[in-house]
Each structure stands twice: as structure tokens, then as C-alpha cells.
Amino acid sequence: MSLTTNVDVFKPPRRGYYWSYYIITSSQELESALAHPLVVLMFWASWNEPCRVMMRPFRAMAVAKRRAAIFCQVDVDKFKDIVERYRVEALPTFLLLKQGVEKGRVVGAKVGDLSNIIMANI
Q1: What's CA 108's distance to the chain center, in Å?
Q2: Could you read off the pLDDT of 23-48 as tens digits, one per residue?
Q3: How many separate domains does the chain show?
Q4: Residue 56 is assigned to a structural domain of this protein
Q5: pTM of the model
Q6: Of 11, 20, 53, 122, whose Cβ has the fewest other Cβ atoms within 10 Å?
Q7: How many Cα atoms are found within 13 Å in the side-chain-facing hemisphere of 102?
Q8: Distance of alpha carbon 80 from alpha carbon 58, whole angstroms
Q9: Are 94 and 114 within 8 A, CB to CB?
Q10: Domain assignment of residue 95, yes or no
Q11: For 36-85, how does the pLDDT look when each residue is reduced to its tens digit (9 = 90+)?
Q12: Segment holding 114, helix H or strand E
């Protein structure tokens, strides 16, 4: 079962695995993910310690809510145009988009705030 409307963009998982989150590698992938009704974006950088700390909780939420939303990681060093589009000023930044409209934003390593926003909109 595909989580997006554009099946060709995301490669299917290996046998025995399931989708839980995507690491965005192109603008086309992001646009395809945004076609889903509920999307959680994590803007991160590999050199940022708070981003590395938030990886585990982000992935755990992605697994727990994989049927309700698409969870995507966007590397700020690779996608400066996307960073500007969503006005990301600090890392990590999490956005909850419902039907393409921002419904919540969490800036910083705040697991409780992120969880509250996701639970309130799913």
C-alpha cells in the first residue's frame, strides 16, 4: 500500500520492512509527500547535536503514527530553498502540515511539545 498519491517517487521498502519515515532526497519527493493529508517535517542537520538527540523520538513517533501521517526528514544543508519556503530559523524545527497548511511548529529539542501537536491533529 502506498502512502502517497505518486507511487513512483518513493521506493518500496525491502521485504519484511514497512515505511515509517522518509529522508527527503529531492524536491520532487517532498512535493509528493505534501500531497498526503497529514505530513510531519523535521528540518535537521547532521552536525547539530539537538537534531541528533531528536532522531530517536521522531522515528518512534513515525512508527507509532505511520498509518495516519507521513514523517519526513529534510536536510537543511541540501535544501536551502525548502528551508526558506518554510521560514526555518533554528534546528531542529518540526512542522505539522494538514492539507498543506501549517497547523503546528515546534522549534528545538522538545519531545513533549512535538508529541502534543501530533496527537492534537491526528
Answers
A1: 15
A2: 898 888 888 888 889 999 999 999 99
A3: 1
A4: yes
A5: 0.84
A6: 11
A7: 11
A8: 22
A9: yes
A10: yes
A11: 899 999 999 999 999 999 999 998 898 888 888 889 999 999 999 999 99
A12: helix 111-121
